[in-house]
Amino acid sequence: MNTPRGARRTDTELSDGRTLFYYDPLDAPVRVPLEDTRGLPAPKPQVELRTDPLTGDVITYATHRNTRTYLPPADQCPLCASKPGNPTEIPDHDYNVAVFQNRFPSFAGPGQAEVVCFTSDHNKSFTDLSQGQARLVVETWADRTAELSARPDVEYVFPFENRGREIGVTLSHPHGQIYAFPFLPPRMRTLMARAREHQEVAGSNLFADILAAERKEGTRVVAENHTWTAFVPEAARWPVEVHLYPHRQVADISELSNSERDDFAELYLDVLSRFDGLYGDPLPYIAAWHSAPVRVDRELGYLHLELLSIRRAADKIKYLAGSESGMGAFISDTRPEDVAETLRKVGS
């Protein structure tokens, strides 16, 4: 059993040897985990990494994932708590937050892939969580980030959530994932290169300067509190895109103070409610944490969350066409200032 800063963690093992972590509030009863009775065979993931000679990008081949669970009915959801006659990935009959090594991982050996179940309630989404429940998820992200970052085979820790079938979600239970990359992902390589250039020219942190400019200009700010600001970036790629920045530069989630964790939970739930109020129904989205790299250029990083949706109208989805997919040149149907104004009005 381990105790993170603001949660009680209980470690156990699934029948195939994978690790499972329960995260409970500090004042919750001590958890005695139930045994996984499924008798699963030891996993044998098939993962291969190749480097594209044209770009230097690392491409991961995980062919075993083609057989992963796909849109099961609610009564057969593998992320729900176990019930008599329906054992799942989580043996206990109830839980607050649970994390386990993915049965169909994108990385194995070097790196790791974990599943983060936000709640045992199958019919909720992150938007429906109380601030206390959301805060517990933040504690979970912080603890897993710290532990995974300490591994010698990990270069980047990436907590994220995909929501909605339009995004490609294969399990509807409210959950996210954490990829502990054994390499620096292409987007972070690009961001760190830009941050390094900015530091050399301006003598300041690129992300801090972007945040300061957005707060000063104000027209793209959606919401803010004492320690965080949410804004639509000036050059947003996606139809609905909001970035959440702490006012203090930190490298990753584990470095956030207690008040910063509180304020993030409050602001994030506010922004998610605005997303769902935009068209009157749950908005499909990707929530992607951007931390500093574990080792290289760590001082140039600046923790922030990028939240984006592919829905460009109430009944229209933005698909990546030739320009975006073929050349990486985005063409947007929405203007950042208009999106920000609309999201501000949703909460008014």
UniProtKB/TrEMBL annotation:
The keyword Acyltransferase does not apply. NCBIfam families: galT_1. Residues 200-305 form the Galactose-1-phosphate uridyl transferase C-terminal domain. It comes from the Bacteria. Pathway: Carbohydrate metabolism; galactose metabolism. This is Galactose-1-phosphate uridylyltransferase. It comes from Kribbella alba. It holds the Pfam family GalP_UDP_transf. Belongs to the galactose-1-phosphate uridylyltransferase type 1 family. Its cofactor is Zn(2+). Gene3D superfamilies: HIT-like (3.30.428.10). It is an enzyme of class 2 (transferase). One of its GO terms (molecular function) is nucleotidyltransferase activity. InterPro entries: GalP_UDPtransf1, GalP_UDPtransf1_His-AS, GalP_Utransf_C, GalP_Utransf_N, HIT-like_sf. Keywords: Carbohydrate metabolism, Galactose metabolism, Metal-binding, Nucleotidyltransferase, Transferase, Zinc. Its EC number is 2.7.7.12. PROSITE patterns: GAL_P_UDP_TRANSF_I. It catalyses: alpha-D-galactose 1-phosphate + UDP-alpha-D-glucose = alpha-D-glucose 1-phosphate + UDP-alpha-D-galactose. Residues 111-185 form the Galactose-1-phosphate uridyl transferase N-terminal domain. The keyword Lipid biosynthesis does not apply.
